[in-house]
Amino acid sequence: MTMLRAYACLALACLTATPTSADWDKAKLDKEIAAIERQSQGRLGVALLDLRDRKTWSHRGTESFPMQSVFKWPLAIAALQAVEAGKLQLDQPITIRRSEFSLYHSPLAKAFKGDSNAYPLRELIALAAGESDNTAADILMREIGGPKVVSAMLRDGGISGISVDRYERQFQPEVFGLPGFGWDQVIDEPAYRTKLSALDRKTRQAALLAALKDKRDSATPEASVLFVEAQAKGNWLRDPAHNALIDGIVTQTKSGPDRIRAGLPQGAGFAHKTGAGLTMDGVNHATNDIGLVTLPNGRVFAIAVYLVGSTADAKEREAAHAAVAKAAVSALR
Fold first, then answer.
1. Cα angle vertex 293, ends 292, 297, to 5°?
2. Which residues belong to any copy of the Beta-lactamase class A catalytic domain (predicted)?
3. Would the pLDDT of 5 be above 80?
4. How far is Cα 270 from Cα 267, in angstroms, rounded to an integer?
5. Active-site residue 151, yes or no?
6. Are 29 and 327 contacting, i.e. CB atoms less than 8 angstroms apart?
7. What DSSP state is assigned to residue 255?
8. Helical H runs in 132-220?
9. Residue of 40, 58, 69, 163 with catalytic role
10. 8 A C-beta contact, residue 57 and residue 329
């Protein structure tokens, strides 16, 4: 049994052993999260779901927020579902060409040698979900049949409110008003960045404003914690080894140490996926984090924090995440 599964079992056992009287101190959260949102200088979405009694609390919980790399967690699960369906194999080599690199963060691209290399599918899953590698994510998404496969998986699993619609190479340029790249186009990232910087400021700002409201590649905080809960229960995958693989990846990820994790008490466990977008003209597209918290006293809850359109710097945005986590822990009764 994996750690996430053990945590979920503990929480579900509590559900049958005790009255469902636990709750969040909603008045306290309403006040504190509203104050954190004002300090964050952006739009803040938060959802909490206690796995012991399934009591919830949210702030802007049904509003849509751009996910950025948060989508790579359900993407990894969709890839493992394809393995379970016999469409792919974990040790199957996937050839990647230098001409297929995507934009922005990609440890794979940085370490790449020659014109093409083959990677086992399991390595692409770990790179995408664990290291947030954009090239690995795009290739993985293409191998399973495209973004629609991930959205269908979520919908079939009873999760509405999360939509995966485009590849990284498509939606990242569109956030700021440039056309996305198709698979028939080679991305020259330095040239792209020069073009992005040279774009008319008003055009960039208008595109970003539209992107912040775009329902594509977005999630609601409430849908996000339901997704996390389903993973903790083992609802997405049949094979225990596959559950262990994805749980290990999201438990060991080192991203976002100053976000939610920084607001948790010492000894707390945290399995999660972060997401972050560019800051242009003083406005950040998104700074996100969703995951499963296990407190030292055994209480387990899912948390989603989305902060978009913020004019605060990176340190302040991450501090807002930590403040939300601290408030959530103190409000859990």
1. 145
2. 45-306
3. no
4. 10
5. no
6. yes
7. S
8. 134-144, 147-156, 168-175, 189-198, 201-211
9. 69
10. no
